[in-house]
Amino acid sequence: VPEFLLLTGCKQLVTLRGSAPRCGAAMRELGIIKNGALLIRDGRIAAIGSEAHVKRAARKLPPKDRKRIRELNAQGAVALPGFVDSHTHLVFPASRAEEYELRIAGATYEQIAAAGGGILSTVSKLRKASPASLRQRALASLTYMAAHGATTVEAKSGYGLDAPSELKILRLHRELAKAQPLDIVSTFLGAHVPPPEYRDCPDDYVELLCRRLIPQVATAHLAEYCDVFCDRGAFTLDQSRRILTAARACGMGLRLHAEQLTHTGAAQLALELHAASADHLEQINSDDIRALAASDVTCTLLPGCCFHLGLQHYAPARALVEAGAIVALATDFNPGTSPTLNMQMILSLACTQMRMTPAEAVAAATINAAYSLGRADRIGSLEVGKFADLALFAVEDYREIPYYFGVNHCTTTIKKGQIVWNRR
Ligand code: NIG
Ligand code: FE
Q: For residues 320 and 132, what is the distance between their CA atoms, to the nearest angstrom?
């Protein structure tokens, strides 16, 4: 039997209908419907428009279906497509609050990593952690993400760095996808940093990834994408190329942590390999901007990192948008550089620190992020036929979501037509 939900009373229904991805001036066209409504049938949008239009569509249903319609009045809220958080390190065992204090006292992220902290300290804890404890922590994070308006979350492995621990994380991604309502897109980041066992021979680890782990992960369908952290202290450009080429040969999509701490040429590598996304991009130059803008590679910006690390040099979002690049935004939720799971805060940082307009930031956090995950045909905008993934915010205008920063405006989150979060 079909299930129906009629959502009425949206002061602004921000649809992002039309072409995907959104680039340049089109990023500022959000397709807003004033006093909008939405009819959901079996988890998908069946009608959307003015309240009169949608109610007319509901009245045309056969009487037995009409009786099944549940109504939800948004009471003047602003409705957006659910946020697509397209870059997270969801599964980790503990915070690194002690490093937060070290950085406040003046130590840099790279100094802490070189002294044995950083990613490797999380790795040693994760290897000892039980799947149950990791599961519980990740479930709590996903609940928080839903409570802040996210409906799809990309999740990277990368705190295991050996076969059993990486597989433990990837299997957990699969389990989490079944255990709670948000969609999870799994990414293999076995190439986060070389593990301690391969400190003096990182190329041997690269070989292990290319010959054993990547084929194993691909064959077991444990990850849709493969990612590499290409930077000083992580993997070189040449190693990154080898890893990503092996992943592509196994049918995986490609993503890249590129040009975050130093300029390595990773953005150009993303172009060369037709990666789905190049992420971070704080250090890109004008040649990179021009080349990225002419490509199909999504530029996923992660302003939570600069904010949390106290750095002034954010990625050049304005130049990328104006050059016509596909720009997306994500939290980069992780214990080292960006311990936030609140996409609303990311919008505030994008606007205030990177001078994106609120409209551009919304497009980047929804339809463009969906595009980077190969899902723009199903999610990221509110259009007939797409999944009914949306979030309601208790503001009068969508611009107030980033404007009133640092608090949660989300009152209701709907995933495939089901209410998965409600403030009351
Ligand atoms: O996206 N840059 C590499 N990886 C993460 C940080 C991971 C960590 O510090 O635990 C990032 O910033
Ligand atoms: Fe990251």
A: 42
**Which tokens hold the place of 330?**
């994500």
Number of H helices, E strands in the chain: 18, 16
pLDDT beyond 90 at 424: no
CB of 279 within 6 A of ligand 1: the answer is: no
Q: Is the CB of 241 under 6 A from ligand 1?
A: no
How many angstroms is it from 122 CA to the middle of ligand 1?
11
Q: Quick one: DSSP state of residue 273?
A: T
411 lines ligand 1 (CB under 6 A): no
Residue 219 C-beta-side C-alpha neighbours within 13 Å: 6
Q: Does residue 235's CB lie within 6 angstroms of at least one atom of ligand 1?
A: no
With a 6 Å cutoff on the Cβ, whether 257 touches ligand 1 is: yes
Predicted TM-score (pTM) of this structure:
0.98
> 151 alpha carbon to ligand 1 midpoint, in Å?
23
Contact of 327 with 364, CB cutoff 8 Å: yes
Structure tokens at 223: 């990850």
Ligand 1 pocket test, pick from 122, 240, 257 with the greatest ligand atom count within 8 Å of Cβ, gives 257
Residues 6 or more apart whose CB falls under 8 angstroms from that of 70 comprise 4, 5, 6
Residues 10-35: pLDDT tens digits? 999 999 999 999 999 999 999 999 99
Percentage of the chain exceeding pLDDT 70: 100
CA-angle at 17, arms to 14 and 20, nearest 5°:
120
342 within ligand 1 shell (Cβ under 6 A): no
Cα angle for residues 337, 161, 278 (degrees, 5° grid)? 50
Instruction: Answer whether residue 1 shows pLDDT above 90.
Output: no
| CA of residue 21 to ligand 1 center, whole Å | 26
The strand pairing partners of 50, in sequence order, are 36
What's the rounded Cα separation, in Å, for the pair 288 and 243? 22
Q: Is the CB of 334 under 6 A from ligand 1?
A: yes
Average pLDDT, the chain: 98
